[in-house]
Amino acid sequence: MKQPIRKKAHFKTFPIKMSLVKVYFSFCLCVLIYALSTPILTVILKHHGTRCNGTITANESSLVHRWTSNNYLYEFKVGDKTYTGNSLIKVGNNDKIGDTISVLYFEFFPSFNRPVTFYED
Q1: What are phi and psi for residue 45, nearest 5 degrees?
Q2: Which of 39, 62, 114, 121 is the most exposed place for a label (fewest CB within 10 A)?
Q3: How many CB atoms lie within 10 A of CB 66?
C-alpha cells in the first residue's frame, strides 16, 4: 500500500519568511527616506527658515565622541518651548559660553534647526 504524499514542512514557514522580508524592506525604505530627507531639508532651511537668536550653553553634544568632535549646544525658545542644537563650537572654548548665536529653524518643525555658521563653511 502506498503512503499518501505529504507536503514538506518548509511550505508552512513560507508566510513567515515573506512577512520578515516585508519588515526588512520597510525598514530599509525608512532608513533611505531619512537619509535623503535630511540633506534636502537642510537646503530648504537655508532659503526658507526662520531666523532667531540662541544662547550657547555649557552642555555638550556627547552623542558620538568616536566619530565626531565634542561641541557645545545652543538653546532657543519658540513660544513656551525650548529647543537645542549643536553650535559647532568645540568644547574647551569657554569664552563662547553665554554668547548669542543666530539659528535657522522651520516654524512648523522647530526641532529641525541649524546655526547660521553651518552654512558658512
Answers
A1: -60, -40
A2: 121
A3: 4
Q: How far apart are CA 77 and CA 52, in angstroms?
A: 9
* Residue 71 CA neighbour count, 13 Å, CB half: 13
Contact 45, 112 (CB under 8 A): yes
Residue 96 CA to residue 76 CA, distance in Å, equals 16
Pairing of the two strands 81-90 and 113-115: unpaired
> How many CB atoms lie under 10 A from the CB of residue 17?
10
Written as one string, the DSSP assignment of 53-118 is EEEEEEEEE-S-TTTS--EEEEEEEETTEEEEEEEEEETT-GGGTT-EEEEEE-SS-TTSEEEGGG
Give the tens place of pLDDT for each residue, 34-43: 888 888 998 9
Does the predicted TM-score (pTM) go above 0.85? no
